[in-house]
Amino acid sequence: MNEKFFSLPDEKQHAILNAGYRVFSQNSYKKSPMSEIAGAAGISKSLLFHYFYNKKELYLFLWETCAEITRDYLKKYRCDETSDLFEIMHRGLQAKVHIMKQYPDLAAFAMKAYYEKDPAVCQEIQDSIAKQAAYKENAHRLKMNAEQFVPGLDLQMMYQDMYWASEGYLWEKLQSGTVDADEMEQDFVKIIDFWKKIYLRKEG
């Protein structure tokens, strides 16, 4: 699948991906014209259809590529090589910042696609999300040591609270249209330090 696309030079592939993420993140699926994506990528509309049979194929390809890029960067930053929750969050943060610098509109696209209701793509997106759900159950996968946290703390609730706060922060930034990867990294470092003060057991 998409052999013609993968035969392109990396630079051209990158341009098409970023064009797709940008246009689909700014509009609903239905109101995102292929001509606009082609123009943003610097190619003709007919050439874009040469690489992707139709808009749905491109949209789902972008969604799956989004997940693949995220997994690759999380692996690159060794997020699965430690059981320290806060270290994992910091490494994950570094991975996401790197992704945002390479693909500025990927996060906005992912959030937009998550809530997309168009019947042309909705079911495929939701099926994909369901398959990935188990991977996101990090609180169980990490096997955290309860002894390092405040006595009696509900670890699952703690993780869920941090996840919601992170997603809320990202959503606010995306809605404001002022996404600055370096600024976000600085903010999240402060947030992680704040969580450490709240949740970690005090020595002595």
Q: Would you mind describing this structure in some detail?
A:
- It is a single chain.
- With 204 residues, the protein is mainly α.
- The chain has one domain (3-199): Tetracycline Repressor, domain 2 (Orthogonal Bundle), CATH 1.10.357.10.
- Helix content is 69%, strand content 0%.
- The protein is built from eleven helices and no strands.
- It has helices at 3-6, 10-26, 34-41, 45-51, 55-76, 85-102, 106-114, 122-132, 138-141, 155-176, 181-199.
- The radius of gyration is 19 Å and the shape is elongated.
- The termini are far apart.
* Strands, total number: 0
User: CATH superfamily, please?
Assistant: Tetracycline Repressor, domain 2
User: What is the general shape?
Assistant: elongated
Query: How many angstroms does the end-to-end distance come to?
Result: 59 Å
* Tally of distinct domains: 1
Report Rg: 19 Å
Q: How do the SSEs run, as a string of H and E? A: HHHHHHHHHHH
The share of residues in extended strands comes to under 5%
Low-confidence runs of at least 5 consecutive residues: none
Indicate the CATH class: Mainly Alpha
Mean pLDDT: 87
Helix share, percent: 55-70%
